[in-house]
Specification:
Keywords: Hydrolase. Belongs to the HAM1 NTPase family. This is XTP/dITP diphosphohydrolase. One of its GO terms (cellular component) is cytoplasm. By secondary structure, the chain is an alpha+beta fold. About 35% of the residues lie in helices and about 25% in strands. It has helices spanning about 10-20, 40-55, 75-85, 85-95, 130, 185-190, 190-205, and strands at about 1-5, 25, 55-65, 75, 100-110, 145-155, 170-175, 175-180. α6 (about 185-190) packs across α7. The protein is globular. The two termini are about 15 Å apart.
Length: about 210
């Protein structure tokens, strides 16, 4: 049984579209560390979730990265939406550049307590710190291995359009359509999470 850590049942349904194995939702409030990148946040969460559930665990972390704002809000996207609001973040992006180019990124972190090779590109890069990072509960030699998969979708920030989706979907336009104007199936076909899930599913089928 693969446990997907989320409070969003829609993410679980999306994962089931990509995976042949059984996936169930796990509502678990893992520690979200402060970091400039998504990878160590997701890796820490996957380790905690595996320890909590005692079963293979999948955690995702995602964010909106605006080019002209040096990647802001990035890993702090949820906090920025809660405090500033989606529309104000959109105004900041459009004031900084026209067009306000941006990308959604998603990192999936998987942990089942067993060893495997370090994560594949593009997450792995030259170092493997995100895949082998320790937390304050463990020493380097005893760190639980975590496998990472990333998905990216490029677009631009526009005035809000559409009634669907959630978060920054109304202000993120991809190929002329905002995520909020897309159906769930259309969004899943191009989304950052869908691209990460596709990579994960291909690897997980051989696990």
């Amino acid at each position: 049984m693969l446990r997907y850590v989320t409070t969003n049942a829609g993410k679980v349904r999306e994962a089931r579209d990509y995976l042949d194995s059984e996936v169930s939702q796990l509502d678990f409030d893992y520690t979200e560390i402060q970091a400039p990148d998504l990878e160590p946040i997701a890796a820490r969460g996957a380790r905690e979730a595996y320890r909590h559930a005692g079963e293979p665990a999948l955690v995702d972390d995602a964010g909106l990265f605006v080019d002209a704002l040096d990647g802001f809000p990035g890993p702090y996207s949820a906090y920025a939406e809660e405090t500033l609001g989606m529309e104000r973040v959109g105004h900041l992006a459009r004031d900084a550049a026209d067009p306000a180019r941006a990308e959604f990124r998603c990192v999936l972190a998987y942990c089942d307590g067993d060893a495997f090779d370090a994560s594949p590109d593009p997450v792995d890069r030259a170092d493997r710190a995100a895949a082998a990072a320790t937390d304050d509960r463990e020493e380097q030699d005893d760190a639980l291995p975590v496998k990472l998969f990333s998905g990216v979708v490029r677009g631009r920030i526009v005035e809000p359009r559409g009634d669907g989706g959630f978060g920054y979907d109304p202000v993120f336009e991809h190929d002329g359509t905002t995520f909020a104007e897309m159906s769930a199936a259309e969004k899943n076909a191009v989304s950052h999470r869908g691209r990460a899930l596709e990579q994960f599913a291909e690897w997980y089928a051989t696990r």
